[in-house]
Known about the structure:
The structure is a single chain. The chain is α/β, with parallel strands linked by helices. It has 2 domains: 1-58, no CATH class; 70-468, Alpha-Beta Barrel (TIM Barrel), CATH 3.20.20. Helices cover 30% and strands 12% of the residues. The chain is built from 13 helices and 13 strands. The strands form 3 sheets. The protein has an 8-stranded parallel β-barrel, surrounded by 6 helices. Strands 1-2 form a two-stranded antiparallel sheet. A two-stranded parallel sheet has the order 7-8. Helix 11 (416-424) links the parallel strand 12 and strand 13. Helix 5 packs across helix 6 (247-267). The longest helix is centred in the middle third of the chain and has 21 residues, at 247-267. The radius of gyration is 23 Å and the shape is globular. Mean pLDDT is 86; it is low at 1-50.
Amino acid sequence: MLLHNLVRRASPGSAFLPLASRTLHSSPRASMPSDKISDYASGQAAPVWPQDKPLALTLGHFVPAREGHPPAGAVPADIVPEGASRPKLFDPRVQLSASNSGLALKNRVIVSPMCQYSAKDGFPSVWHLSHLGSWALHGVGSIMVEASGVTAAGRITPQCLGIWKDEHIDAHASLVSALRTVAPGLTVGIQLAHAGRKASTWSPYHRGEKKHKDYVTDAEGGWEGEVVAPSAVAYGEGWITPRELSTKEMEELQEHFIRGADRAFQAGYDFVELHAAHGYFLHSCLSPLSNKRTDAYGGSFEGRTKLLLDTVRAIRSKYPNKSLWVRVSGTDFAEHVEADGQATWNGDETKKLAPLLDAEGVDVLDVSAGGLVPFQKISPKPAYQLEFAAGVKQTKPKKMLVGAVGMMEGDEYPGQVAEDALQRGDCDLILLARGMMADPAWTEHAATELMGVRCAGSPQYHRTHPAKRPPPRAQNHN
Ligand SMILES: Cc1cc2nc3c(=O)[nH]c(=O)nc-3n(C[C@H](O)[C@H](O)[C@H](O)COP(=O)(O)O)c2cc1C
């Protein structure tokens, strides 16, 4: 209805009319048979990607004026209310000092990477900008772009983001530049990933009737025959058995991660994170449950950590001035099988790995957990993975910061769980995923509603700021 009115109001010579008409008439969705539309709505049919037929939308290069406004999410001294103490979550300058990147975050709140299954051929889409932009507007300290395949076959699903070819660079550069434009001072990173034995699977919302363990076949746009892992061990019963990579192919995989980092830095990302968690390739090297190799990449702790450490070392020496992060699973959550004589990746091994990563100049160790085996035992509750981050902090990293993730938001008071963890010294950074999607203004709410500390917002959103919304709220002078 709104679009219809706009089209009607536009004068015949206006540039607006052709744009709106094209949008209405050339949209792939509008030209679809109606039975397809309802199929797609219920997740049964192939999605229709706008990139196939560009909508011809052109966004202007408007840069919001921020004169007199500190960066969104920052808490400069003069906006801390009198009598309030600044929470640690809002330390004004969180320096990452393990690398020579000079990178500093404007607070300790980080958007955890979240796959959106919304890319075609690995390219970021308008969805990614909207999704990530929601947090850029609301002042997070940093945003990490979701797991992005360093090879096409290393994607979890055919709709996952990628960074395996040079053609991806421009699209990522546009994404980073748009996010920084709307949120000056924002740090943006990307997670580099290879899905290993969990590749070529269905995304949760393209799956339809299929089960999680049903692979996307070649005919369906997957790469069933190219699912690879450190060892030919299936994730679980009924899952495909991956092909074990040769020693040479393990070395080549390291090169793919380096090329991914090359492209990410060319696109302007502030940091890259190596995804060595959640059962994907690098994690499945670490764990003795999934790594049964007998060459230099298997067996001992040194062998199982070799690919990760070699990759870290290579990226660090090639990019001494860039920030490098690593996500690990602090445990496989499978300690219960150790009693049966099965070794697992656990908190002790994570604590052994941490000083090595610290010594290699990793800026942040982002400590998640689980995802390697279907028989993991997890009891989700607020801060349920924090003990593994706290374990790493006990190793007293010299320069590396430690991130905690996993329900780090409270039910009633959004920032309290995070702030308590920081105050205790259990971690240095807080990563949030589901809580952030549920409340894109989480950062502002944590600052203002919980701790009575104002944090700067986006000037365009000033009417929403709790500190500027005194009752009565009904005034409307716009
Ligand atoms: C929709 C969704 C997508 C996710 N995708 C990724 C991903 O790309 N990489 C990753 O390391 N973790 C991913 N995760 C895990 C989150 O980053 C996070 O570790 C987990 O959800 C626990 O944090 P939370 O309790 O704040 O949600 C994803 C989680 C969700 C909910």
